[in-house]
Amino acid sequence: MAEDSGQDKTEEPTSKRLADSRKKGQVPRSKELSTFVTLIVSSALFIYMGRYMADQLLEMMRHQFQLSREVIFDPATPAIYLKQALIEGFEGIVPFMLALMVADLLVPLMMGGWNYTTEAFEPKFSKLNPLAGIKKIIGTQGLVELIKAIIKTVLVAFVAWNLFKVYFDDFMGLSRMSVEQAIFHAGDIIVFCVLILSATLLLVVMIDVPYQLWHYKEQMKMTKQEVRDEAKEMEGSPEVKGKIRRMQMEAAQRRMMEAVPSADVIVTNPTHFAVALKYDQNSSGAPLLVAKGTDLVAAQIRNLAMASKVPLVAAPSLARALYYSTELNQEIPRGLFLAVAQVLAYVFQLRAASQQGWNKPVPPSDVQVPDEFRQ
Fold first, then answer.
1. Fewer Cβ atoms within 10 A, N terminus or C terminus of the chain?
2. How many CA atoms lie within 13 A of 13 on its CB side?
């Protein structure tokens, strides 16, 4: 591969390269961002739901510890109390866990988006190579992880020490409170401290997210040879070429058929050829050929013209001459002006007769085509 050729990766990744890497599960991710959001959301949920969870805990403790002698010696009591404790415990913690799960599912949308692939689960023996693991540890990635770990440790330790000094007296005073007051007060202090400690990780996130985006972009960059190989692979594939050619032909035919209803006349063979002409009387240009076809396509043009009430004129020599001499959306050649003029004159007479209620004119039967245009 070009990656082993010693070339520098200086080219921006192609869309195919990015799509292939995404299929393999390679998307920009930041563990620090996920940790930060999880801790912040957890703290916020504790602030919002802490009182409710504490009430559920106290209620469960009351039910479990207020036991009479008869209840204690009843063999059926343990199962009943266990069931009640589980129900009360789940009632207190399930809303918190559900909200936290939703937050964890939304975190990937902030960076990289959701991406599910089975390739990431496939076993790869290259991952068992100890040399590759050592390179990661002592390489740039390992250095970055070490710096982040040091920054996190210093920040958390500094903030935690100051919080400990601030709330030391409050913690010591918990012993003088009732159990219920102590639980609620301790919960308030702990939640606030966790929120402050989590917020300090914002600095690490602000460093890690840009770095991960930059690192992913650098990993995805390609050498000039890789770009050439990919282009050759895409352009050289017969299947891709055939599909592109079919799509182009279908699009061109679709546009051509859309022009048939606006044509002034369809010159036919009458069965094997059909040519649609459009003439703007206010323009100084010659008539345009807006659609043409043979056999099945010719039949489609005729059917569409009849459905759109576009006149059909049988002029075999002229139809073949126009088909072979004129491309789509091109003016007819000068040598066919006279022959086409005869056909258009008949069309205009037919249009006037229809409007005035006159008898239909006779279609031209002696349309002459110069020898050089005969096929």
1. N
2. 16
Identify the CA nearest to 8 among candidates 222, 249, 245, 299. 222
Cis bond before residue 270 (omega within 30° of 0): yes
Q: What is the pLDDT of residue 1?
A: 42
d(CA 302, CA 268): 8
| Dist. CA 169–CA 183, nearest whole Å | 16
Evaluate whether 277 touches 330 at the Cβ level (below 8 Å): no
SS3 for 214-235 is HHHHHHHCECHHHHHHHHHHHH
The CA distance from 73 to 68, in Å, is 9
So what's the pLDDT on residue 277? 92
Distance in angstroms (rounded) separating the CA atoms of residues 269 and 275: 9
Neighbours of 181 (CB within 10 A): 11
Q: Residue 219: what pLDDT?
A: 82
Residue 186 confidence (pLDDT) = 80
Distance between CA atoms of residues 222 and 205, nearest Å: 28
Residue 2 confidence (pLDDT)? 42
Secondary structure element (H or E) that encloses residue 342, with its range: helix 337-356
Q: Count other C-beta atoms under 10 Å from residue 288's C-beta.
A: 20
Cα–Cα distance, 69 to 152 (Å, whole number): 53
pTM score, whole prediction: 0.47
